[in-house]
Design a protein that fits this description.
By secondary structure, the protein is of the alpha/beta class. It is 33% helix and 22% strand. The protein has 22 helices and 29 strands. The strands form five sheets. Strands 6, 7, 8, 9, 10, 11, 12, 13, 14, 15 and 16 form an eleven-stranded mixed beta sheet that branches. It has a seven-stranded mixed beta sheet with strand order 26-27-23-22-21-28-29, sandwiched between helices. A five-stranded mixed beta sheet has the order 4-1-3-2-5, with helices on one face. Helix 5 packs across helix 9. The protein is globular, with a radius of gyration of 27 Å.
């Protein structure tokens, strides 16, 4: 008789790991016990030597699909003569922690049950098991047991309790287990909160949606707004009420076959759609389409997701139409999560509300992803992904990195775990800041982190920066300011397991530079301690400051006047209607009145979009650049580009004056907009390549990290990657965390860890 004491670390709670261990021990005839603790799953087993060895091997190989094992440690111990194998009570350990499972999309077994008339969970919207269902959104603390979740108020009926206690049942120790007798329930109300009498909430909701009504649906991590995606009036109504005039909406389709009707779907995209994470996936839109053009105006791609809860499955099956399924908020606010809160905040948007009585502990938006070169890339990291940690190369101190202003996330580190938060949003109002602060406290509690260091962006006006300075001063923490683009590059290095140094290309819209200017077209020499600015796009004035970001035509006028001089008129250009304003902008620039300098690549894209009359003013971030990309021809034989020069001083400067002039000449010569757009994208990729070749010669480095929101541009990403790889560069790009500002906090944390 031999015995082992085994400790398993990773995501091993809330994923059916103890039931798996129980069944595995039975298969090998082993006796002993298993239990959850605050930091791990602990197992003590005894039996013959061969069975023990095979048991430990299978622990790693055959673990439940939703688990993520980081480490298994087995130590020989004295046998105790156990006569059975038991699941013991969980044990709370002071100061210990472990990763928490994200919410998991409905598994196939549960989906079959809700559509089987003879099953006791037929049409039950809260069906789940150890392989699927709510996790992070209902967990209040660890160890993960029902009393520490928002399911504690629902006492299991005898049948559910029997499943919960039966080792042969897939609901064995499934903490959110419930059924129509004992679990949460749906309710339909109007926008004043008055109950709507109906025998079946789902059927009634489907009728309302088919009639063009807007519904607010309480999902996993908050409310979503739904309407018929094929009904132009309904889509327009939702846009007006939500104050979202142009930004694309996401669509939910009932199943993969439905998605194929609306979009072109590769094998890798199909796998991502149907994965347990079930993100919104950006897919090439088939045209013509029954889905209204106004769902994603001016866009070749459609954000599509499959149902990921029983409620969604039932609703989509009943309505028989693709539905818009977007965040339940007014623009720039956090999503609503409580019933009363939703009716108060969304009564002017939604006509009816599908409510339920299972409390949501953590707000949780939908994740957004795409597939490039057969590999998923995360654009917005939330449901299904957070709070799963990014693994660090080395042990870290306990650090809070506060992130950026837009697409905010924060990051908390402990040991080799970097807990990157779910998408918080743009920190532009008190409601979002309160959501941010509450979520920071939740993560600190769950992962037993008391930060020693607080890292923040150098921009003095960011709310995240102000929060960091105030918190750091109150708690007497070491405070580390981190340059925006350095954080971008290091975030890319971290997720790729690269120590550096690397050449970093950080292209985005706005980042506070060490010289006080607005950076955004940067070529850096970087590692996880520091950086050197080796080159950048030429600075141009930002006339009116932030106003120029909202009005791309101002950037076009600034580029023309600053780089080409007074001899250039606007004659023959779409910009002629701004002649009067051009004179004002000239004076602003000459007298340096509210005209901060920027090297932003995002602003260069804006300027060209305005020159081409694609977008003069924007309704949402990066709209001009997105529509410029969408305008580019798909003709792969069009390979032209525009001239530019690189001034090789101590810091190399890309001078795009010739580029702007050539674009203007093409416009006047009647060259089609799609051709000009593609040539411009080719040119930006060529700028990156030529600058990289010069810097490789100077530094001897051929490792390049690409980061920043501009690389969300698929066309530029593909052109740049191809050009660099052809020249032998080893190129690192983002996959686990967003290339936009949603990944900034990860880089901040690692830089802070390595600060002196």
């Amino acid at each position: 008789m031999k015995a082992s004491r085994i400790t398993v670390n990773g995501i091993v709670q809330g994923v059916g790991f103890r039931p798996f261990v129980y069944r595995l021990a039975g298969e090998y005839g082993l006796k002993g016990w298993v239990r959850n603790t605050s930091g791990s799953v602990e197992i003590e087993v005894e039996g013959n030597e061969i069975s023990l060895r095979d048991f430990i091997t299978e622990l790693k190989k055959a673990a439940p699909p939703a688990s993520r094992i980081e480490k298994v440690r087995a130590v020989a111990c004295q046998p105790h003569g156990y006569v059975s194998f038991d699941i013991k009570e969980s044990e709370t350990e002071t100061g210990q922690y472990q990763p928490v499972s994200p919410d998991i999309a409905t598994c196939e077994d549960c989906r079959k049950e809700i559509f089987t008339p003879t099953d006791r969970r037929y049409r039950y919207s809260f069906t789940n098991c150890t392989n699927c269902g709510p996790r992070f959104t209902i967990i209040e603390d660890i160890p993960y047991d029902r009393p520490k979740t928002t399911m504690r108020k629902f006492k299991m009926c005898p049948q559910c309790q029997k499943e919960y206690d039966n080792p042969a049942d897939r609901r064995f120790h499934a903490q959110p287990n419930a059924c129509p007798v004992c679990g949460p329930r749906l309710e339909l109300v109007d926008n004043r909160g008055k109950p709507v009498k109906c025998n079946d909430v789902i059927k009634k909701a489907a009728i309302l949606l088919k009639n063009g009504e807007v519904l607010a649906v309480r999902g996993l991590g908050g409310f979503q707004l739904a309407c018929d995606a094929t009904n132009e009036k309904a889509v327009d109504l939702l846009r007006k009420r939500k104050h979202r005039p142009a930004k694309p909406f996401a669509v939910m389709a009932a199943n993969p076959d439905e998605v194929e009707k609306y979009c072109k779907v590769s094998l890798a995209e199909a796998e991502l759609l149907a994965s347990p994470e079930a993100p919104i996936v950006l897919l090439k839109w088939r045209q013509p389409s029954v889905i209204c053009p106004s769902v994603a105006p001016g866009n070749k791609y459609l954000g599509v997701m499959l149902p990921y809860t029983p409620l969604h499955h039932l609703l989509l099956a009943e309505v028989g139409l693709p539905l818009i399924m977007t965040s339940g908020n007014l623009s720039e606010e956090p999503i609503a999560k409580e019933n009363d809160e939703a009716i108060r905040r969304l009564h002017g948007i939604a006509d009816y509300f599908i409510l339920h009585n299972r409390d949501i502990y953590a707000r949780y938006d939908d994740s957004v992803a795409r597939v490039e070169n057969g590999t998923p890339q995360i654009i917005r990291r939330a449901r299904g992904y957070a709070p799963h940690p990014v693994m660090l190369l080395n042990k870290s101190k306990q650090i809070l990195a506060c992130g950026a202003e837009e697409k905010n996330t924060f990051c908390l580190t402990r040991e080799r775990h970097a807990f990157l938060s779910q998408h918080i949003g743009d920190l532009e109002n008190e409601e979002t800041l309160a959501h941010y602060e509450n979520t920071v406290e939740l993560y600190k509690k769950l992962f037993r982190i008391q930060p020693q260091i607080i890292a923040y962006d150098m921009h003095p006006e960011y709310l995240a920066t102000k929060y960091a300075l105030e918190t750091g001063a109150k708690q007497n923490l070491k405070m580390v300011p981190v340059q925006h683009h350095h954080a971008h590059i290091v975030s890319c290095m971290v997720e790729n397991g690269v120590k550096g140094p690397v050449l970093g290309v950080a292209f985005d819209g706005t980042g506070y530079g060490t010289d006080g200017n607005i950076w955004g077209g940067e070529f850096l020499l970087a590692d996880n301690q520091g950086f050197q600015r080796l080159g950048h796009l030429e600075n141009v004035p930002l006339p009116g400051g932030a106003v120029a970001i909202k009005k791309p035509y101002r950037m076009a006028l600034s580029y023309i006047y600053t780089l080409l001089g007074k001899r250039y008129s606007l004659e023959g250009l779409p910009l002629t209607r701004f002649v009067a304003e051009y004179e004002i902008i000239k004076k602003q620039v000459e007298k340096k009145i509210n005209t901060p300098l920027t090297s932003s690549a995002g602003r260069l894209f804006d300027a060209v979009a305005a020159l081409l009359n694609i977008r003069m003013e924007i309704d949402y971030e990066a709209q001009a650049a997105i529509e410029l990309e969408m305008a580019a021809t798909d003709d792969i034989f069009e390979s032209g580009s525009y001239p530019f020069t690189i001034a090789c001083n101590r810091v190399k400067i890309v001078k795009p004056g010739e580029l702007i002039e050539a674009v203007m000449n093409d416009i006047k010569d009647g060259i089609p907009v799609p051709v000009i757009s593609l040539k411009f994208h080719n040119t930006v990729a060529e700028i990156i390549l030529q600058m990289s070749l010069l810097l490789k010669k100077d530094t001897g480095l051929n490792q390049i990290a690409l980061s920043g929101g501009v690389f969300q541009n698929r066309l530029l990403h593909r052109l740049t990657l191809s050009a660099l790889q052809k020249e032998g560069f080893k190129v690192f790009t983002h996959h686990l965390v967003p290339c936009n500002d949603g990944g900034i906090s990860l880089g901040q944390a690692v830089i802070a860890q390595n600060s002196e």
